[in-house]
Write a structure and sequence with these properties.
Helices cover about 30% and strands about 25% of the residues. It is an alpha+beta fold. The protein has 2 domains: about 5-130 and about 145-285, Distorted Sandwich (Beta-galactosidase, Chain A, domain 5); about 330-700, Glycosyltransferase (Alpha/alpha barrel), CATH 1.50.10. A hairpin with a 2-residue loop joins strand 16 (about 210-220) and strand 17 (about 220-230). It comes from Lacticaseibacillus hegangensis.
Amino acid sequence: MSVLTWKTESHNASESMPVGGHDVGLNVWCEDHQVFAYISRSDFFDENDELLKAGRLRIVFKKSVHFISQSLSTDAGKVTIKLTVDNKPLTIAWFCSVTESAAIVSFSCKQSIAASVTYENWRIHDHELPNDNSRWPCKGFYKFPGKVIKHRDEFVADSTRLSFWHQNKNSAIIDDTVHQQHLDDYRSQAFDYLSGAIFGGLMTSSLFDGCEAGTTSYDGRPAVAYTYSVEITDGASILVLLDHSQAMILDNWEESLTARAQSFDVLQQEKDADKFWHEAAVRSWIHLRSHDNRAQEISENYELFRYMLLCNQAGAFPTKFNGGLFTVDPDLPFVGKSGQEDIDSVQKGDNPGNHLSLKKFDPDFRMWGGIFTSQNQRLVYWPMLAAGDYDAMIPLFELYRRGLPLAMGFVKKLWGHRGAMFAEQLEQFGLSSGSEYGWLNPKTGKRRYGFTDPAELDSPYTRYYFASQIELSYMILRYAEASGRSITKYHELIKQCLLFFYDHYRYIHRITTLSDYDADGKLVIAPSTATESYKNAVNPTEVISGLRATVPLYLKIFNNEIDEEERTEFNKFYQALPELPHRQMQGHDTIAPASYFTDIMNAELPQLYPVFPYEQYGVGRPNLDLARDTWRYGVDSEKQRGKIGWHQDNIFVALLGDADDAANLTYEKLKNSWQRFPAFWGPGYDWLPDHNWGGTGMIGLQKMLVQETDKDVILLPACPKDWEGDVRMSLNNQATITFSFGNGQVKIEDYQSPLGNKRIIYEGGDIHV
């Protein structure tokens, strides 16, 4: 499917279609004979670190309207709305530039049509955010004892254009977090994207001739409204340019936007967008068929979600796992809905509670806002490797590279050794979220859970949890191996992420035993945690597995960039890694989550991280039965198995070659959402649309179709025998493979491997070339 079409209007913003490009996303929908769009950009963070929308557009027609259709074409990156207005046909096309931050609305009609175009914004007053779930969109300030003010936006309109912007009043989230974590001496090294930032945009059109300011509302929330009465003509368009700048006075910022608008070529931008989305479509695809239509459904939604991820392929910040660019008014997805498992999950833990309370929040709201949760973010980015969407991975890598100075400063200041420490709940400037580290209670003078060691995070979930930086390093190395691109700029980042584990656990062990290693000459990874689940852990499996996968790959990729001293040290590091722990479960030998732990808090499965992401066990690899038995018998609680959100069960079973379970679980991931747009899954544990939900679905489907070892490309290792389809995917070492399959036959349409061919294996039948 490259085109999704609706034949009826939507009920509200939750029934919108996504469209985007570069770093901009729109939610577009028709409601009550009006056309709406929310506008987002991936770096519009205010002084509290809340990701704000740029505003909302509304098009209202002066005569009677008949809705015909609304369509999204992923091959063109465009949403097209067809109407008749006073019996006159009108087509409205929405698309975004792929070379700069801009949204374009273009019109096609045979006769002029009277309408109004309104820009709306709900941030019209400064207001204090109470110290409760109102601060979830700026999670770093959750439980912060001081005042947190969400500031209003500013607007200037004339007859042909409207400027709208937010100018950050301070950088308190950085200042307070740096001070909280005892790093005032390192404040100047913090990556600061907030201080003095002006972000917003310019809306203009040749149709505009006079503006009227007023007020409006949507879903009961008041907003300012700037309305232009227009006569829509064929070929006319509306341009919305977006920008984020620092160290620039407002007049110069507006002048810069004006100059961009004057040189903006809508027709050329449309051609560039068509070219970009066409190239994405032919770079990689998965088109599947089955008698029960499940295969069609999941491959269609795979395509829709991949499209959503590519809308932020050039962003200054990663696509957020908790909604990306496409959140809407928080209560609307739940209107008239009840009883679904994923809705119920909103009410768990510290989440905002019963969905009816979401009515009080504005359209900027999302749970876990501001921060980047590493275990969730990775699931958005792993599927880009097999899709060949390498450019889109860069925003994630840059988040960590820019945060390296503070991550190293934290280690140096509080432990005195080498390395960088990136916390699980990561602020954009490289430190742990203030709410996870723990704000001091003004009454007690203590952090929330009372820890006094400044080197410890306060949250019991993320305390001693450093493993995500290993996986981030492994992902960057895998990116280099797959794409053939240089990652020299990330060398120091990866080196410091890995050296932390070598230095830190020798340092800790030396304090208590006067020795760097245990009696066998091995590192002791303790105190630690296996994911957020297995607490007070010793030698957690995800850490050992991750280091065993990543250190050799580091030496391979950077072979020509490191000297003999570093090579010797990293080889010594590798030799000191303990073996993966095992345990007997239900009479079977299984991989243990850690060699020792005391409690289980959460629902992850670190004992299967050697399967994914590190792929040390799986089809075509040694000891497959050990990994399979770990899946079958090595789980401590059924709540560790799941289909919503970030649960990775579908990936595990695909890599273990279980076609039936892989198909069933991947279908649960990628089947049509209960929202109108099929790829708006969630909220799961996070928010809606849940991007780590879609990411796990994509990864699982990819692994059902193609897996790879050092010597082999394995086709259809976990695919039902009654499925058929056409696939093109990227492989390791700059290779690609295109094949079709069905009825026990595989036909290789194309196999390009510039660094040497591997053996292609299909155990389910015959291969034809």
